[in-house]
Specification:
The structure holds three protein chains of three kinds. Chain B is mainly α. Helix content of chain B is 49%, strand content 7%. The relative contact order of chain B is 0.17. Chain C has a single domain, classed as Hypothetical Protein Ychn, Chain: A. Classes of the chains: A alpha/beta, B mainly alpha, C alpha/beta.
């Protein structure tokens, strides 16, 4: 039998997973659920990319303070993704613009892509999960 | 379920994780370790304190792979490997150390 | 006083705010809560619609829901009133009745 520290290199296929986030945080549970699933996929060393579009761009808005509504603020967790080797974060340009936001308003560095570029990225994936 | 710490009764879940992380104090770790038959050394505390700082910053307990890498970066290469961490925390570094640090069980990991 | 309408859905995702505005008679109040607070800011594609409604309606927005979402009270459209939970309760008592659009 191998020692426990010897089998933390996971074998098996690495697949391209894209998580598409389209909901605002807090109003519904989608944003938090997506984040948890992303962390699990990343722990299994999959090729993970995230998209924030439509109201999903609000998930990574800077300056969230949930003290008064009594709900956990999970926006700091997006900054942990880099440590999980999740570094492909795409934000749809049109979604930012229609909400009066820019990349400077976001808690993590992202690549801002337009609708057409995003469509191409989606075509490259093996699994797409939408939240 | 509960554990007794400094005369206070602190609620824990069925796996022994602290219910409210704000109730944590160093004694919590010492008492939990004693129940597992472990005497905490400075090397243990380094990891426990690291985990508390990590949680404070990111609001999650890290997966073991992430913990190992981050420990290596912060505390030196010779500590940033699974063997070192498993020797300190034989029940699984993320799981056992997180428990002592008062954090929730890490998502999807040992 | 007439009715207070509360709206809790994002104006970018649902038509709830439009429906509420269409059914609110002159002198009514509209309170934006939860994801509906995203309707309250300058610089968005819905700002003009909200500004236009201010002629006939009073529009309020819940401060704690603004802070939770990292939005800034400074960016709130002129003429809207930010209220806290106490203010929410006051509004409920001031208006004759409340309609919650879900």
């Amino acid at each position: 039998m191998s020692e426990p520290w010897e089998d933390d290199e996971l074998d098996g296929p690495v697949r391209k997973f894209m998580y598409v986030n389209r909901r605002a945080p807090y109003g519904t549970i989608y944003a938090l659920e997506s984040l948890e699933v992303v962390l699990i996929a990343a722990a299994f060393e999959q090729d993970v990319s995230l998209v924030f579009m439509d109201d999903g761009v609000y998930q990574i808005k800077k300056g969230q303070n949930t003290e008064a509504i009594g709900v956990k603020n999970f926006s700091p967790t997006y900054r942990a993704l880099e440590g999980y080797d999740v570094e492909k974060l795409y934000v749809e340009k049109e979604s930012l613009e229609s909400r009066g936001l820019t990349a400077d308003d976001l808690v993590v560095p992202v690549q801002v892509v337009d609708r057409n570029q995003l469509a191409e990225l989606m075509e490259e994936q093996e699994v797409i999960l939408s939240f | 379920m509960a554990i007794e710490v400094n005369g206070k009764s602190l609620e824990v879940d069925e796996e022994g994780y602290l219910a409210d992380l704000n109730q944590w104090e160093p004694e919590v770790a010492t008492i939990m370790a004693k129940e597992d038959g472990t005497e905490l050394t400075d090397a243990h505390w380094e990891v426990i304190n690291f985990l508390r700082e990590y949680y404070e910053e990111y609001q999650i307990a890290p997966a073991v792979r992430v913990l190992t890498k981050a420990i290596g970066k912060k505390l030196g290469k010779e500590k940033g490997n699974s063997k070192y961490l498993y020797e300190l925390f034989p029940y699984g570094p993320a799981k056992q150390a997180c428990k002592y640090a008062g954090l929730p069980k890490p998502t999807g990991c040992v | 006083m007439p009715m207070l309408h509360t709206v809790n859905k994002s104006p970018f995702e649902r038509r709830t705010l439009d429906t509420a505005l269409r059914h609110a008679v002159k002198g009514s109040g509209v309170l934006l809560i939860e994801d509906a607070v995203y309707a309250a800011f300058e610089g968005t594609v819905v700002a003009e619609k909200v500004r236009a409604a201010l002629g006939d309606l009073k529009i309020y927005v819940l401060g704690p829901d603004i802070a939770a979402r990292g939005m800034s009270e400074k960016q709130v459209i002129d003429g809207l009133e930010v209220v806290d939970y106490g203010g929410f309760v006051d509004l409920v008592t001031e208006y004759d009745k409340v309609q919650s659009w879900l």
